[in-house]
């Protein structure tokens, strides 16, 4: 990414990169949560945590970028090593732990950035913040980022911050989301507010979230985050055990995340927009998520394994269909 940054700082090279990696077509333009997306292929949160590579990611064709997860205070994240590839499964296990520069530094960087792309802000709580005070952390992040991003995603579904997933329970979640919507509605221009959900929810928990999303008038859901499951992996059990805790992403997540997209879409009659994320590597994977009811899609692990041409390949295929 730093090499890409150096190249895009030279106008001639940026032009060459854009020509080779971007694909623009009117049929790809989408209006979702009232925002104009030039194409439906975004980069999921957790890659550009600190908004360091906006120009570079825009140059290689992404339709939108979700930065973060951002927390109120800077934090180093979990001990290294904390990122592992499972080559046989085309998967990644990470336990990064919301490592980021803190919301003030990220907001300053966003304000000074020149960009022509939709930016989402994925927000979370600091590890040291108790769950009963978590709403305060989300409130701080929303206020700091309000003028420099296009939509918000509340992250209560990462498995890498102790106790965070407990905030997906209806009562805890209602307090956070209601508070954020109060702030949102108090502004002149409201911002779309989304919730990122785990793939490991029970049907009952999922129903609670759908009900709450409608009650507090969320703009949409991101489905899904990484999974704590290790079922059906080809990688040797000994190696998986040695890696230990963390969220699994990539191809093993594809079916589970698609099922959740489909369930949410069916239960809401398609009225609650969903960003589909999990196991998207090919144009066929992308079409599967969209057919399941996703309005937009995000890649992350697929971007790592397939390389920067993944966006163009998907967009070309979608335009042909």
From TrEMBL:
Pfam families cross-referenced by the UniProt entry: DHO_dh
Predominant location category: membrane
GO cellular component: cytoplasm; plasma membrane
Taxonomic superkingdom: Bacteria
Statement: the UniProt record of this protein carries the keyword Metal-binding: no
Listed HAMAP family: DHO_dh_type2
Residues given in the record as FMN binding sites: 45-49, 69, 122, 155, 196, 224, 250, 279
Mode of membrane association: Peripheral membrane protein
Pathway participation: Pyrimidine metabolism; UMP biosynthesis via de novo pathway; orotate from (S)-dihydroorotate (quinone route): step 1/1
Its biological purpose: Catalyzes the conversion of dihydroorotate to orotate with quinone as electron acceptor.
Lineage, opening ranks: Bacteria, Pseudomonadati, Bacteroidota, Chitinophagia, Chitinophagales
UniProt EC number: 1.3.5.2
Record: active site: 158 (nucleophile)
InterPro entries, per database record: Aldolase_TIM, DHO_dehydrogenase, Dihydroorotate_DH_1_2, Dihydroorotate_DH_2, Dihydroorotate_DH_cat, Dihydroorotate_DH_CS
Assembly mode: Monomer.
Cofactor: FMN
Signal peptide positions (record): none
Binding site for substrate: 49, 94-98, 155, 160, 225-226
Family, as annotated: Belongs to the dihydroorotate dehydrogenase family. Type 2 subfamily.
A single BP term in Gene Ontology: 'de novo' UMP biosynthetic process
PANTHER family named in the record: DIHYDROOROTATE DEHYDROGENASE (QUINONE), MITOCHONDRIAL, DIHYDROOROTATE DEHYDROGENASE (QUINONE), MITOCHONDRIAL-RELATED
Organism encoding this protein: Segetibacter aerophilus
Name of the protein in its database record: Dihydroorotate dehydrogenase (quinone)
Main enzyme class: oxidoreductase
Keywords annotated in UniProt: Cell membrane, Flavoprotein, FMN, Membrane, Oxidoreductase, Pyrimidine biosynthesis
């Amino acid at each position: 990414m730093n090499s890409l940054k150096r190249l895009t700082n030279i106008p001639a090279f940026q032009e060459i990169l854009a020509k080779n990696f971007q694909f623009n077509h009117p049929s790809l333009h989408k209006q979702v949560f009232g925002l104009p997306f030039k194409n439906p292929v975004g980069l999921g949160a957790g890659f550009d945590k600190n908004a360091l590579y906006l120009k570079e990611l825009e140059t290689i064709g992404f339709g939108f970028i979700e930065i973060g997860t951002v927390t109120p205070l800077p934090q180093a994240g979990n001990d290294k090593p904390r990122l592992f590839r499972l080559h046989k499964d085309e998967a990644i296990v990470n336990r990064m732990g919301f490592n980021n520069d803190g919301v003030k530094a990220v907001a300053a960087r966003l304000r000074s950035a020149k960009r022509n792309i939709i930016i989402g802000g994925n927000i979370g709580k600091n590890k040291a913040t108790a769950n009963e005070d978590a709403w305060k952390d989300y409130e701080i992040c929303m206020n700091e980022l309000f003028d420099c991003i296009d939509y918000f995603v509340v992250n209560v579904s990462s498995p890498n911050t102790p106790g965070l997933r407990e905030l997906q329970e209806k009562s805890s979640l209602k307090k956070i989301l209601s508070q954020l919507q109060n702030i949102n509605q108090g502004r002149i221009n409201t911002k779309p507010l989304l919730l990122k959900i785990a793939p490991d929810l029970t049907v009952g928990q999922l129903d609670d979230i759908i009900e709450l999303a409608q009650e507090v008038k969320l703009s949409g859901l991101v489905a899904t985050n990484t999974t704590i499951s290790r079922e059906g992996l080809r990688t040797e059990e000994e190696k998986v055990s040695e890696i230990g805790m963390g969220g699994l992403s990539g191809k093993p997540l594809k079916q589970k995340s698609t099922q959740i997209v489909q369930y949410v879409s069916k239960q809401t009659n398609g009225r609650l927009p969903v960003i589909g994320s999990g196991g998207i590597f090919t144009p066929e994977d992308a079409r599967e998520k969209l057919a399941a009811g996703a309005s937009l899609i995000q890649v992350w692990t697929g971007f790592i394994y397939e390389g920067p041409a993944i966006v163009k390949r998907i967009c070309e295929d979608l335009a042909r269909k």
